[in-house]
Amino acid sequence: MKAVKLAVIYYSMTGINHQLAEWAANAGKSVGAEVRLLKVKELAPESVIEKNPAWKANTESTKDVQEAGSEDLEWADAIIFSVPTRFGNVASQMKQFIDLQGGLWAKGKLMNKVVSAMSSAQNPHGGQEATIHSLYTSMMHWGAIIVPPGYTDASIFKGGGNPYGTSVTQGQDGRMVEDVKEAVHHQAKRTVQVAQWIINGQNPE
Amino acid sequence: MKAVKLAVIYYSMTGINHQLAEWAANAGKSVGAEVRLLKVKELAPESVIEKNPAWKANTESTKDVQEAGSEDLEWADAIIFSVPTRFGNVASQMKQFIDLQGGLWAKGKLMNKVVSAMSSAQNPHGGQEATIHSLYTSMMHWGAIIVPPGYTDASIFKGGGNPYGTSVTQGQDGRMVEDVKEAVHHQAKRTVQVAQWIINGQNPE
Amino acid sequence: MKAVKLAVIYYSMTGINHQLAEWAANAGKSVGAEVRLLKVKELAPESVIEKNPAWKANTESTKDVQEAGSEDLEWADAIIFSVPTRFGNVASQMKQFIDLQGGLWAKGKLMNKVVSAMSSAQNPHGGQEATIHSLYTSMMHWGAIIVPPGYTDASIFKGGGNPYGTSVTQGQDGRMVEDVKEAVHHQAKRTVQVAQWIINGQNPE
Amino acid sequence: MKAVKLAVIYYSMTGINHQLAEWAANAGKSVGAEVRLLKVKELAPESVIEKNPAWKANTESTKDVQEAGSEDLEWADAIIFSVPTRFGNVASQMKQFIDLQGGLWAKGKLMNKVVSAMSSAQNPHGGQEATIHSLYTSMMHWGAIIVPPGYTDASIFKGGGNPYGTSVTQGQDGRMVEDVKEAVHHQAKRTVQVAQWIINGQNPE
Lengths: 205, 205, 205, 205
What we know:
InterPro entries (chains A, B, C, D): Flavodoxin/NO_synth (IPR008254), Flavoprotein-like_sf (IPR029039), Flavoprotein_WrbA-like (IPR010089), FMN_Rdtase-like_dom (IPR005025)
Keywords (chains A, B, C, D): Oxidoreductase
CATH superfamily of chain A: Flavodoxin domain
EC number (chains A, B, C, D): 1.6.5.2
Largest interface: A-B, 32 and 32 residues
Strand content of chain A: 15-25%
GO molecular function (chains A, B, C, D): FMN binding; NAD(P)H dehydrogenase (quinone) activity
Number of strands of chain A: 8
Family (chains A, B, C, D): Belongs to the WrbA family.
Helix content of chain A: 40-55%
Oligomer: homotetramer
CATH architecture of chain A: 3-Layer(aba) Sandwich
Distance between the termini of chain A: 8 Å
């Protein structure tokens, strides 16, 4: 049985989506996947980041995380995205990363990736649903196999019940409001599970 | 190797989506799937249908097609939906069919279905994209594995290039404007293919 | 100054959306609108409703509410919809009501209505955003002027911060989880306000 | 009667959306609006643009168009966006422009803008609908008054019948496939018209 290659790709300003991504990466490893935890390139200038202590601290503490590239997408069997909302749509840093994959797409190298997505916002209904939908819309263009969590586990209800992907509210204090750790674990394990079925089905021993 | 069980479920007023569904059903059979071609229950009263010759003719010519029920969804490994747009969203006949599956959903019987969707409208940009998205949104609630065609085959470009699902424009004369037959064949075969991988992967011999 | 004619159109199974609609209607009256509070036609057979005490009770207590018809839409300057989610999309009862307006639409009688929408779900992220978006998509086909609340008032944050429209979670006990009354009041008043500006602007004294 | 202040904000790689924006700007002027035609900041490095003759030519021919800034949004009564799809969502250049308005948004300066949007793609169903929807979703966060064209004029049917906003297909030769000039004119005039009603209604003489 070939191990699933899982890329967990995130953008994070103050650490929430980095945390979601890390939980997903760990859950992926726990079920035998080969995992790459990857951030997308920042668009904001350093001078802006400097002025925001939480942003600065997160940028520094994650400076050793590799930046995602086309080769990671080509390598991956499964991809989990984690991205905060910006006005009900993916942050432009993530959008730029997606836009830059036109070359890979044109070569047909993005087909049949198993994809799932997570998000965060500053209000309980602040675009978490819409942001995940936007991500999946782009994935449809890539010919992805989309695996939203639905209501496939009790942890999802506990985490706020978002069937499109785990989402969390970032409180005024910068911390997560809902307890979504288990929901993230489930989502990541299910994504790897579906990818494993597909790999096994494509390559019977 | 277990055969994929494919349910092709459609609503059709004047025959377009019945045709799309039939093409999908035939393509499914051609790659070894067990197929059920099923229509959803009509909501319009007979007196209204009577007054519209095209609607009446289609109702009569498809009267022997079975009506879809919860047992068909439980049976299926893969589901292809075909539904015309009504103001940028699925026709209410299809929405009612979906709404009625709450019982099956609550029992966890709708998880992991491999799903793909098709649509039609009276204008080239008359809601084909939006309607397919609405269908997939509901499928995310069911815990489905969503398999839009993307740009995984040349036939998709020829058929109008809708990566979310095959869609067609119904002309003033009631006929299809674009030539989407091959795109439908590809979409159905790919849906069955992904379902086959998953079945094989779940049940290694 | 001509008064704004506001139609508040809802579907409600156990009373949540009836309550939202009533709050919206009252807020509309409080700012001088002429208001019609209207329910859409039920699709479920009586025998099904009978078996669900909460559904039955709500059906009985709202039996004197008028059913919405095309003439109400033609009459209205502004429309507020309130509809529970069913798998991330409007309940089929509401979808049927929308679908039936094809005749009015073809006559151009649905243009320039000022529209806003509200929703409810059983999980905090259970499709509230997606359902309101579906409604607005249909309204775009009607040529509506869409007035989502955005973050135009502090009450919106308090009610869960849904910028697309007020939404509420229905708890296990059947009651609303969030306190959205003020958010509904604001949304209704703003909808009437925008409609009033448009009426005044169209008909200078 | 105060003139409507209209900002037409676009991103264009090879000229299509610049052309749509220019048509909209001219139509706005023809009905008395004060108009600013504005492009958003490019994200691609010059070295990449240099290698693509069509991109380079468009960049040079539009080098005197002003870049949009927050002050333009604050100034405007109405905004028309024109942006190509990138994988079913707004190009990242436009997304970045939107994301950067957080400061203006927090001050409440983005409320009640009258907004409409246009798009283009390389396939007839290549994300035109989805891209315009994404833009409107962000506008809902801004508290905008959204004015999609619907089917409010015959020119819309002629241009492909996209009720969400005018959209066009870019052919292999780089040119527009559909004839959408009249549809753009109508959309821009209607947007200005609605904004004019609102201004007049807010400021009766």
